[in-house]
TrEMBL record:
Membrane topology of the entry: Multi-pass membrane protein
InterPro entries: MATE_fam (IPR002528), MATE_MepA-like (IPR045070), MATE_MepA_subfamily (IPR051327), MdtK-like (IPR048279)
Family: Belongs to the multi antimicrobial extrusion (MATE) (TC 2.A.66.1) family. MepA subfamily.
Protein name per its UniProtKB record: Multidrug export protein MepA
Main location as per UniProt: membrane
Amino acid sequence: MKIENNLDTDKIGGLVWRLAFPSMLAQFVSVLYSIVDRMYIGNIPVIGAEALAGVGICGPVVTLLSSFASWIGVGGAPLMSIRLGQKNEKAAQSMLANCFALLLGMALVIMTVTFLLKGWLLRWFGASSAVFPYANEYLSWYLAGTVFSLLSVGMNQFIICQGFAKVGMKSVVIGAVSNIVLDPVFIFSMHIGVKGAAIATVLSQMASCIYVLAFLFSDRSLVPITFGGYRGRYMKQVLLVGLSPFLIIASDSVLIIVMNMVINAYGKGGRGDMLLTCNTILQSFMLMITMPLGGITGGTQTVLGYNYGAKRPDRIRKAQKYILALGLVFTTIMFIIGQLVPGYFVQIFTRNPAYMEVTQRAIRVCTMCIIPLAVQYTIVDGFTGMGIARVAVSLSMFRKLIYFLGMLIIPMLFGVESVFFAEPVSDVAACISSAAAFLLLSGKVLGDNKRL
């Protein structure tokens, strides 16, 4: 079987690029899942604004669900990479089997629990009486595809960590293209509105899931999925290493939920629902930054994990420099777009002048310090890729804490629309703290390089 990328011998610069670009592109395409849904929903006649606010309430809930896929996928893939670097293919295969069983069981439990609590959750997360029906309808149908969503996202990491970045990208593209095609069919041609958007998403996730599992069960996979050999020790390792990406994504969702709650609490009259709609569009734009950036830093984790297992710190340091450079280039481009032309993005969702004005201002505020965010992503995902979970979690949670405090304090002092300034404050703080931690700890980590 021909390997796309040889983690052992390929030149680091080309290797990082070949892994980072497909992963970044896959994450960018993945954003289309939510953006396409919201774009079509926002343009539904008469109910578009309220329906978009309702789906915006569901957005962080949906992301919270997907964070469990990252817990297992991003937690298990670096451990499998380390074992491949150690030339221990049997242990790598056992790790994959344990991760598949763990993720499947987790998906079934999460789907059941969330469905039972969805009404209470949506109201608590800020859904007013006007937007609750749309949020409830969307989430009810979306939950039917929880197993497909978690398996496609989580198990795709084990394709990428074997060096098959293009295959991983194709799985995401299949789902996104399916969603783009099916959304207008269900929403407009079949006239089933918000429910149609959710059904289209579920079918698209099913298509991705089938592609991912078909590859991992086939002879094309260097390490295929097998059954048996389940070990509590392996599962505990996965949960520990994956805790960082899980908390990063889950806490992002919690922060958006808190922001919606703050907006609902401080927004007077219909102002609250209007700001919820604007925040939905804003968060869609921010996903276009954070998910592809995470694709760059997360998709290249396998280089770090493999060479950490192979005890080659020189290749790790070179890789980190290239990863940081790619991240800074990407965030600089998105900074320019966010500051100069946010209106082109906003008008995809709404042409209402009042909504456009508020949302464009919010995008400019949230992206004013987005360039340094590449530093934190590179360092946190780098530590995660080498299995250094505790450092990654600490750095990530520090940024979330600053963001959380900013959302609570800033609106109290300057009004509800100032809540968006919590983003740039936390971005700067995260860059400084992550850089300091890296300078203090990287030499010790690469010098010790103990087997996990």
